[in-house]
Design goal:
- 2 copies of one chain form a homodimer.
- In chain A, about 45% of the residues lie in helices and about 15% in strands.
- Chain A contains 17 helices and 14 strands.
- In chain A, helix 5 links the parallel strand 4 and strand 5.
- The longest helix of chain A has 19 residues.
- The N and C termini of chain A lie far apart (about 75 Å).
- Chains A and B meet through helix 4, strand 3, helix 9, helix 13 and strand 13 of A and helix 4, strand 3, helix 9, helix 13 and strand 13 of B.
- Strand 13 of chain A pairs parallel with strand 14 of chain B, so a sheet runs across the interface.
Chain lengths: ~425, ~425
């Protein structure tokens, strides 16, 4: 790993794949066709892109049972325990509607309502992760969303990953369609005879899925467009090099464009971690991916002191941050930008990827400056409540009408005055 | 106004102005130039589009004072009172960071952090509304955003609207630049020598501003892309036709594409309101706009009973909803989709547009199905906190490693096992 001295303006940002003009055009055409021809377009694109002509898009009860049966009891128990932990954490995010009153009898407030229907995209192939099902479904469920629809591209055998289906069953998803790509996003956004439209689409996908989400954004809500994953480890001399290296590599194995960074105040730790990464990487099954990621995006940033190290982390705004220092909580308090913060030796990132409860859908590529982990708020919306009393109205009617006239909006002023402010008002 | 019977599938949706290919190209070119040439590009575009060559983009202290001095004491007092009300309401939205602990010593939580810097776009010309300044700035301020930057296009005289500047001063905005259009959005998103970059851009604007926000989305956060405004009034026979009509017209005067709908269970109210709208519209200064809006987008929907009327409103998902019925709170409880809900005779929409405290930046064009009024959450982000205890780690390490292997991610499993789970674990 490259070892460098900290310098201002440090950044993890990689260029985002915005797609080629051809890819954008292809996605627009697919969306257009699905809007026009509905299910038949969905079936045709599935045949073309996934190589299978399906009788039924909907996953049957029997397919769900077969999938579950193909996992071991131990595997099912682990998925169930993870689902329970994730549910418990997200239930703590649920907010109540609230209101205030005043002595004129006016009531103001904010009403929280779950979205009616949410679509969860789950990638196919080797990226078909049961943890992704849990992390996208459980917050929607905690929010009270009644209809949660899952879509995922079928394999050539017309089937979905058993582990994904088992996770969906444990998460309580009942409506699952074997459809992927831009055609799945179009069906969710605009509806077909088989797949009724939803209000929001979440979940990761390939470039076609990402482009399709961008296209339908506005007609439905979408979650973020996720970039490749990243981790920063902030460590002092108290950290253990082999553990730091193992954590950096757990990120690097995801993707050759994943980014693993060590920020440290210890020059000796820097050297040791660099050596450990080389050693451990060579032993990994996904060695090629991990080594490419470390080579292109791996960095060790040596800082003069902890203040500088914290500044470096805040500039990076990493998706995942591990703090392996003395006084981890004190350091955490000074972190302004990070998707998830793992504190201490026993909070290795995979603890949060699968099991602890907080969400693993996190803002990437520096967007932790302004974005949040997927959470219950993403599946609820607010409505303002205004119930003005006659007393409050009479006290303020003239001021409100004056404000309207200051903005040149006479009909607004007259709407107020239509309540007889001129006769009985003031 | 057209009177119709309720039928399922009713919708307020109007096609969203997605811009022409030429407009999109122009916006992309402007953004490219500002990224490349910074301030000099900003000055050049301002000269080209706003017809003025500025010495300084930053509004001076002197300009602020002149603007304030040009408003009456009464006007300033009204803006101040509105600002106080808006601040008070939004302060109630502030959330605390929270955490949970368990008896193994594990701590999980969610840390709330305000965004570092927010840009507020304020349109120029006749759409330069002081209320818009307050509604966009106060939630950011309540959230604790340290740097709030305002941008607005100058008139040919190189000046901004005095009312807008006065509102900015009252709201506590200190950094205001005379720049508008796509060049303002580009400067806020990517920074120039004069205008440092921000993390999020909010506020309404014309098609060039909307397209530019779409382009920079992802590099910075943006609020919604607002469509033309709309109101639905849900009324029974207890409502007063002249008041309902005045409220419908207060929406219609905004924009020829604004949409005003009465949903009612009373056929006689429907007739009366239609007549009142015709009568009152003819007397408005903005008569042409209001009449065009009513003609093209005004509707009266007559329903068989209140259940049907509530269903109609939920299908419309209006930006503003006035409930003028007996048992207004009971009706409100059944509304699932509306940006702001005004209950009772004295909650005429302008009460909320300017004064009561809730935000007037609301989801339009049916997006109340999944979007919320602008609020403090829009200016804070969350970070997950995971501090796993050694006990919890040892209890769960093997399960977490198994989960990782189920997903084919060996380095994840090894990161867990690097903590010595094999020696001392289980």
């Amino acid at each position: 790993m490259k070892i460098e001295r900290f310098a201002e303006g440090i950044s993890l940002k990689r260029s985002v794949d915005a797609g080629t003009a051809d890819q954008r055009k292809a996605v627009q055409d697919i969306i257009h066709d699905v809007r026009k021809s509905g299910d038949s377009a969905v079936h045709n694109f599935t045949e073309r892109f996934d190589g299978v002509r399906l009788e039924e898009l909907l996953v049957s009860e029997r397919e769900m049972e077969e999938a579950t049966a193909s996992l071991s009891a131990e595997q099912l128990a682990i998925i169930q325990e993870a689902a329970d932990n994730i549910e418990m954490f997200h239930e703590k995010q649920i907010r109540n509607s609230w209101f205030t009153t005043d002595d004129t009898g006016t009531m103001l407030g904010q009403k929280l309502t779950p979205l009616d229907a949410v679509g969860v995209y789950v990638p196919g192939g080797t990226a078909a992760y049961p943890s992704s099902v849990l992390m996208n479904v459980m917050p929607a469920k905690a929010a009270g969303v009644e209809r949660i629809v899952m879509v995922s591209p079928p394999g050539k055998d017309g089937k979905l990953s058993p582990a994904v289906l088992a996770a969906a069953k444990i998460a309580g998803v009942k409506e699952i369609y074997k459809v992927g790509g831009a055609q799945a996003i179009a069906a969710l956004a605009y509806g077909t005879k088989t797949i009724k439209k939803v209000d929001k689409i979440v979940g990761p996908g390939n470039i076609y899925v990402a482009l399709a989400k961008r296209e339908v954004f506005g007609d439905v809500a979408i979650d973020m467009i996720a970039g490749p994953s990243e981790i920063a480890v902030l460590a002092d001399e108290s950290a253990i090099a082999s553990e730091v290296a193992a954590d950096l590599l757990s990120q690097a194995e995801h993707d050759a464009r994943a980014c693993s960074v060590l920020v440290t105040v210890s020059a000796s730790l820097a050297e040791e971690v660099a050596a450990e990464v080389t050693k451990q990487a060579a032993l990994l099954p996904r060695r090629e991916i991990a080594e490419a990621s470390i080579k292109d995006y791996g960095r060790i940033v040596v800082c003069g002191n902890m203040t500088e190290a914290i500044e470096a982390v805040n500039e990076l705004a990493p998706e995942h941050l591990e703090i392996m220092t003395k006084d981890g909580l004190e350091v955490m308090a000074k972190i302004r930008h990070a998707g998830a913060i793992f504190i201490g030796r026993y909070s290795s990132e995979p603890v949060g990827d699968y099991f602890a409860g907080p969400n693993h859908v996190l803002p990437t590529n520096g967007t932790a400056r302004f974005s949040s982990p997927l959470n219950v708020d993403d599946f609820q919306k607010k409505s303002s409540i205004i119930m003005y009393s006659e007393t409050a109205f009479r006290q303020n009617a003239e001021k409100i009408a004056d404000f309207a006239r200051m903005e040149g909006l006479e009909a607004h002023a007259r709407a107020i005055e239509s309540r007889g402010v001129n006769e009985s008002g003031k």
